[in-house]
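BACKBONE STRUCTURE TOKENS:
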Amino acid sequence: MHKFALLLGTWLTTISCLFNQPLLAEIPSIPKPSNAPLELDLLTNPQGSGITANTIDQGQLSVPSLWWIKETSENKLLDNWIAYPFNNHQPARVDVIVNQQIWSLLDYLERYDFVNALGDIARTYGYNIRIFNYQQERLASYTCNFKINPSLCRIEINSQSNFGLGNSF
């Protein structure tokens, strides 16, 4: 009987340890970039709450503030943008339009650096970024999960849209 009690105790201890083990933490998912179409007509005919590089609010700084990056961009890569504030259907995002000729001259690391710099600024305002050319091809994105702190972000660069891969490969 003593052996049975010892065996039973060992078995119960083993089972209880298995069930009390902490589960591996789930890695929060980072959302995919929005599938909403690029609305280029808002650049010439702004409507609603969208903000573009041509929208200037005399009373306050518009959010997100990308004017400084556009003005200090040495190579004139960033051409324009459309910012969409958060709504019930979509997280806040900025659709950035770049000069395709200059984008195609950049290698992968230069593109990554550009997307990361814009994404870091937009993230501070709670915005995701999508990068397009005027042909409405999505070239890259910077998407974050803002529900956790610090937010987790992912950069995607579409190498399919390159005219040339530059010096990175």
